[in-house]
Amino acid sequence: MQRYLIRRLLVLILSLAAASLVIFAVVQLVPGDPASFMLGTGAQPETLAALRQQLGLDLPWPVRYGAWLGGILTGDLGQSLTYRTPVGSMIADRLAVSLPLALLALLLAVVLAFPIGMFAAARHGRAADTAVMAGTQIGVSLPNFWFAMLLVLLFAVNLQWLPAGGFPGWTMPLAALKSLILPAIALALPQAAILARVLRSSLIETLGQDYIRTARAKGLSRAQALRRHALRNALIPVLTIMGMQFSFLLAGAIIIENVFYLPGLGRMIFQAITQRDLIVVQSAVLVLVAAVILVTFLVDLAYAAVDPRLRQP
Question: What is its membrane topology (predicted)?
């Protein structure tokens, strides 16, 4: 297990280093000059050159990359070109919304998907299985922003149980949690449908194995064999999907954040791109990529816990 852990850590570090270089290079290719955007199209060339020098945009890209990477290693993500505030504090403020939202949405997706997937797998080939698969296909197909607007109409406008949007901050925990419920449900529905389908397929494949037939021959029902033996061995593809879903929910909730006026990380990146605030874009994207790589690392560890064969050298 120790060798396996060391190998995965090395892959994590190398992946982060490669990601930082790729992100920096891609952001530099984004059309538009931050200094020109800040000063406007009528700025004098001398003023524009002075601002570029002040912002460090006139330096060669290897120097700027080295300065940015060195700052990251010391915990300094740089300063926003637009707001002149530390990028680290901006990202932390937005993560306080995006991270709980992603975790809540993933929790709801798992709570919905596992019973549905197990139910369908236990009744494979029957009418109940067909109905569940049709329902999950609808869940995958529904646009989450459209579903979000339906939730707002029902629970915020008509029933007035939950707020329609905005985020009051964590100084009021109950109000903050209530403001995340509707967006979390809107995000969770398609993810639950995908996860349920993957779990069902994995369970059906596992239920066809010889050791399951042996368990059935000893007197276990199909449902008992599924819960006691098949579920653990069917988890590897499910864990992969869960890791990908968390990464998507953390970084890809920009539409839902705009529907509910949530000050999340995805919305901040979108605004930074429109303002050509490159340091915010590259630092925030690197944080998201680091989160994806870290989740992948944790999923690999979960693989090893589920399947001991993966821990062998």
Answer: Multi-pass membrane protein
177/104 Cα distance (integer angstroms): 10
Question: Rounded CA gap, 202 and 220, in Å?
Answer: 20
Q: Report how many helices (DSSP H) and strands (DSSP E) the chain contains, helices first.
A: 15, 0
At residue 41, what is the residue type?
T
Buried (b) or exposed (e) across 63-90, using 16+ Cβ within 10 A?
ebbeebeebbeeeebbbbbbeeeebbeb
Per-residue DSSP letter, 86: B
The one-letter amino acid code at 246 reads F
| pTM for this predicted structure | 0.80
How confident is the model over 149-170, as a mean pLDDT? Answer: 89
Per CATH, the homologous superfamily of domain 87-311 is: MetI-like (1.10.3720.10)
Reply yes or no on whether the pLDDT at 3 is more than 80.
no
Say how many CA atoms lie within 13 Å of 294 toward its Cβ: 8
For the chain, the domains span: 87-311
